[in-house]
Design goal:
Helices cover 47% and strands 20% of the residues. It has 196 residues and is α/β, with parallel strands linked by helices. The protein has a single domain, classed as 3-Layer(aba) Sandwich (Rossmann fold). The strands form 2 sheets. It has a 5-stranded parallel sheet with strand order 3-2-1-4-5, sandwiched between helices. The radius of gyration is 16 Å and the shape is globular. It starts with a strand and ends with a strand. The mean pLDDT is 94.
């Protein structure tokens, strides 16, 4: 069975792929808007972890809508959620049996409700899987430390491969670099260099 997993090149989505590979033919899919070449970091991480990879370009209007939500809200949550939902729809439209992401139990964003998951499954005739949804951050970190070679650091220093990097680029292009600091809180990101 073919499964497309939304992939950032970070620890959560890589761990999700490791959990699912026993049951599915996993392809890691990085959704992007063509704004930057940041998706290439995800390709490198997928190669290092031994998974097939695909880049999927999304509608750039969705990035504009997301940035407008962020600008209005003053924080990234609703904009990232908007893009994640669009990305899941795009991946579900591929010729696959299942779609997945690396969302954890304690993630604040993105999240997928039970109703959203069921709607996605019904409309696209796919299974939606969130293999880390029962895992908290501590459990994920322990599993990652045992299985993956991961770099951790501030968002500005770690190669970011998901749509957050492009949303930051769009925001900076339209409103200047200071807008990124105004909207995005300081937080660490991860980047997978390979398996242990």
């Amino acid at each position: 069975m073919d499964l497309a997993l939304l992939y950032s090149g970070g620890k959560d989505s890589t761990l999700a792929a490791l959990v699912l590979e026993r049951f599915y033919d996993v392809t890691l899919v990085t959704a992007h808007f063509g704004v930057t070449d940041a998706w290439q970091h995800a390709r490198d991480a997928a190669d290092a972890a031994g998974f097939d990879f695909r880049a999927l370009e999304l509608d750039p209007d969705v990035a504009d809508d997301a940035v407008e939500k962020m600008r209005t809200d003053g924080y990234p949550r609703n904009g990232i959620q908007h893009v994640h939902e669009h990305a899941l729809e795009a991946v579900a439209a591929l010729d696959v049996d299942a779609v997945a992401d690396g969302t954890r139990r304690d993630d604040r964003v993105p999240t997928v409700s039970r109703a959203q998951a069921q709607s996605l499954e019904d409309r696209h005739d796919v299974d939606y899987l969130s293999p880390l949804s029962g895992f908290g951050r501590g459990a994920v970190d322990r599993l990652v430390n045992a299985e993956l070679d991961v770099e951790v650091g501030p968002s500005e220093e770690i190669p970011r491969s998901d749509y957050e990097a492009e949303l930051r680029a769009v925001l900076a292009d339209e409103d200047g670099e200071d807008a990124i600091r105004d909207v995005f809180p300081d937080h660490d990101q991860t980047y997978v260099h390979g398996l242990r």
